[in-house]
Write a structure and sequence with these properties.
globular; two-stranded antiparallel ribbon; about 220 residues; about 65% helix; 4 strands; single chain; mainly alpha
């Protein structure tokens, strides 16, 4: 997996208290998970949604293979995001078990923030839960984690998840985290500002050269 590079933008303001160590560790780990989600989704968009020319190159090179890659990338992005939106705790054999999720982090942060920052974070958190969580977890549970019989019979009952919806959710997750970063560190983290795309660009360039070579062979311009 390539390194994930991101950048910071300074926000001048007065220093804030330190975040408790355990909460800070969870916050930084969750920041990495959101960065991964941005990376997976950025690669998906670069390959399949941002350029008709790129899609045509993929189809001409290996239509069936890249169709599978498209499905795998989409499913994995939804799976990764869905995990972050799970409840803070679930029961395994009737024993409560903590999950590493946005809800768990939100509960940890409640006692750390001033009222204004908590209200901002809580408003974003509520929007994520009400507008996105059910759809993403439903898709994850019914099509990726399990093969739900009713869904297999009638896929139309699945919620509509599209590129715009994923973009908006990732923006909300980044906005939430930046409220916290802004309070404690006077910074904002650019989750999608420096995503590594060189591998995707190199792949398309290589495929383009291969198609051009095949064209020259077919036209007998080269042996």
């Amino acid at each position: 997996m390539p390194d994930i590079e991101s950048g910071w933008r300074s926000i001048p303001s007065t220093p804030k208290p330190n975040m408790p160590k355990a909460t800070e560790e969870d916050f930084e780990k969750f920041k990495l998970e959101i960065s991964k989600a941005h990376m997976y989704w950025s690669h998906f968009r670069a390959l399949f949604t941002e350029s008709q020319q790129t899609v045509e190159i993929l189809n001409e090179s290996a239509r069936g293979f890249f169709r599978h890659i498209q499905e795998i990338y989409f499913d994995y992005a939804i799976l990764h995001i869905g995990r972050m939106l799970d409840p803070a705790q679930t029961k395994v054999n009737k024993v409560p078990k903590d999950n590493f999720t946005l809800e768990k982090l939100h509960k940890e942060l409640k006692s750390c923030l001033d009222q204004n920052s908590y209200d901002q974070a809580n408003q974003i958190f509520s929007t994520i839960r009400k507008k996105y969580a059910a759809s993403f977890k439903h898709w994850r549970n019914r099509t990726i984690a399990h093969m739900d019989y009713e869904t297999i019979k009638d896929p139309a009952q699945l919620p509509a998840i599209n590129v715009l919806m994923v973009n908006q959710l990732l923006e909300k997750l980044a906005e939430y985290m930046n409220v916290i970063d802004g309070y404690f560190h006077n910074t904002e983290f650019a989750y999608d500002g420096f995503i590594e795309r060189r591998g995707v660009q190199d792949l398309i360039a290589t495929l383009r050269m291969g198609l051009r070579y095949e064209e020259l062979v077919q036209s007998h311009d080269i042996a």
